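Most newcomers find our protein records easier to grasp once they have seen one. Each record describes a single protein and holds just a pair of labelled lines. A learned vocabulary of local backbone shapes supplies the integers on the structure line. Nothing more is needed to start thinking about how sequence determines fold. The record below serves as our worked example for the rest of this section.
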Amino acid sequence: TSRNLMAQKYLLLPRLLKSLSLRVPKLYLQKGSAFLSTLALRPRMEYPALNMMKYSSLSLGLLLTGFIVGSVVFSCSSGKSTGAEPVSAPVPIKVYSAEKGGYVMSETVVKSNAEWKKMLTPEQYHILREKGTERAFTGKYDKFYEHGIYLCAGCGLDLYRSEDKFDSGTGWPSFTMPIAPENVITRPDNSFFTHRTEVICRRCNGHIGHVFDDGPKPTGLRYCMNSAALQFVATKK
């Protein structure tokens, strides 16, 4: 019947909103569907003073507005920060120390965003904590060839040796290998529609750059780092 066809059309609205990924609470969908079904299936004689088509169109518009407003309110409220930033506890790790000439036990460095902002420059924070990238050929260690160790600017962990540094021509300081595999962590990075491998500091989880497989021998790798994420310490040859 015509009333059944109208009910089917109205029942499609909650499903359409859901398919559009509007964050409408499940309760709203259930109640909205029930309301529209009841409205569409009621005999016209219950509304003698109203044209059924106009009444239904008005109701549909009001309900659609309610769905949208409710979804916006729900979305905004669920995205608000509670002010409590989760901070995990430090855990013991085994890393290589150039000063000790071997492996030592250390702990992961855990800080809140506010604490990181206090101790890092804006550029360092953007790179280490927000996975930013400095502009090519602007870093202080791009054309830098002193003998020493490159540390993490966030926690001071030894990351690279000057002996493993080479001029890649890319505008960023590049290395063939880290000072020890245990001092860095690599993981997939699929941001910006590309497939890369991110390199982070093992101790503070700070982003320091990416590694590519187009480097020279002996590893064939190019650890492309951000100068702002590193701190150089000179050592004797």
